[in-house]
């Protein structure tokens, strides 16, 4: 070995340190401590593109689930309802199911009468007349009377909107209302409401408070439907309006709608 040459190990140690080499503090005996080895293994983090994609997808999924759960909890009308209110809602659902069952039995009885009657033509005419009366009530072309309720809505502050009255009509229909009259206007399938703040119209006819609903149906079903938690009565009371419901054994709905002949539709019966 010549005098100008240095051993390789000495040349490496005596020269300048590599720029990328990070200083390490050695423990006793010249070895890295356990904590230093753990830190060296974790930092800097080695994240692959696949791991990053999975992490982003999991974050988005978790955020969506959290938003959905919170939205469901906040918007539930039954949140915090009392036990008696929940029982009343279940009773209303049972009553709706019972009405559907009654209607089914009625239709089956009509079919049986037609099949067993000695004079099927006369029986068919009787059922046709009964059906005509029922359809006339639904279409608003004939007056009706029967048990039901009277809903009176006071609006001294002028905060009642047309959609609130429409919600009341829809709730009454869902509870089994067979005929409805708002002030002097008969409510039928194509009835519409517009306006707000004391300037409300029903089918283009202006009505003024108090808004009086005459409703024919089963009072035991109609009244609870309006008083459910978050329902019509509570909504109106939040708007500083008043809503009172009175049951009656004799409600008269006498506002009539003119019979309309369809312009294009024709019966398909031959």
Folded structure, characterized:
The chain has 270 residues and is α+β, with helices and mostly antiparallel strands. Helix content is 46%, strand content 17%. The strands form 2 sheets. It has a 5-stranded antiparallel beta sheet. It has a 3-stranded antiparallel beta sheet with strand order 4-5-6, with helices on one face. The longest helix is centred in the middle third of the chain and has 34 residues, at 83-116.
List the helices and strands and how they pair.
Blueprint: H1 8-14, H2 34-42, H3 49-75, H4 83-116, H5 120-139, E1 144-154, H6 162-174, E2 179-182, E3 185-187, E4 193-196, E5 199-202, E6 205-207, E7 211-216, H7 219-226, H8 232-238, E8 242-253
Antiparallel strand pairs: 1-7, 1-8, 2-3, 2-7, 4-5, 5-6
Helix pairs in contact: 4-5
What's a quick, concise take on this entry?
This protein has helices at 8-14, 34-42, 49-75, 83-116, 120-139, 162-174, 219-226, 232-238; strands spanning 144-154, 179-182, 185-187, 193-196, 199-202, 205-207, 211-216, 242-253. With 270 residues, the chain is an alpha+beta fold. The termini are far apart.
Kindly estimate the percentage of residues that lie in beta strands according to DSSP: 15-25%
What order do the helices and strands follow?
A: HHHHHEHEEEEEEHHE
CA gyration radius, whole angstroms: 39 Å
Helix amount: 40-55%
Strand count: 8
Q: What structural class is derived from the secondary structure elements?
A: alpha+beta
Q: Quickly count the helices.
A: 8
Low-confidence stretches: 1-23
N-to-C CA distance: 123 Å
Average predicted confidence as pLDDT: 79
User: What spatial order of strands do you see in the largest sheet?
Assistant: 3-2-7-1-8
What summary fits the major beta sheet?
Answer: 5 strands, antiparallel
* Principal-axis shape: elongated
């Amino acid at each position: 070995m010549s005098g100008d040459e240095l051993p390789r190990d000495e040349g490496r140690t005596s020269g300048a340190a590599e720029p990328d080499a990070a200083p390490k503090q050695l423990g006793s005996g010249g070895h890295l401590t356990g904590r230093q080895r753990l830190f060296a293994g974790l930092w800097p983090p080695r994240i692959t593109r696949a791991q990053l994609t999975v992490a982003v997808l999991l974050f988005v999924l978790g955020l969506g689930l959290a938003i959905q759960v919170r939205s469901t909890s906040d918007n539930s009308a039954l949140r915090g309802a009392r036990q008696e209110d929940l029982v009343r809602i279940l009773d209303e659902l049972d009553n709706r199911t019972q009405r559907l069952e009654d209607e089914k039995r009625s239709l089956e009885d009509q079919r049986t009468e037609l099949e067993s009657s000695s004079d099927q033509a006369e029986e068919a005419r009787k059922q046709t007349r009964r059906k005509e009366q029922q359809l006339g009530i639904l279409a608003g072309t004939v007056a009706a009377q029967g048990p039901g309720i009277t809903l009176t809505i006071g609006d001294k502050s002028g905060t009642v909107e047309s959609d609130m009255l429409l919600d009341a009509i829809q709730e009454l229909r869902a509870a089994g209302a067979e005929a409805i009259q708002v002030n002097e206007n008969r409510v039928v399938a194509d009835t519409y409401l517009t306006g707000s703040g004391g300037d409300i119209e029903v089918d283009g006819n202006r009505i003024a408070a108090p808004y009086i609903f005459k409703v024919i149906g089963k009072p035991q079903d109609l009244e609870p439907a309006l008083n459910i938690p978050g329902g019509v009565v509570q909504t109106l009371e939040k708007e500083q309006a008043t809503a009172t419901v009175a049951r009656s054994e004799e409600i008269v709905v006498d506002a009539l709608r003119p019979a309309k002949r369809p312009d294009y539709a024709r019966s398909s019966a031959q």
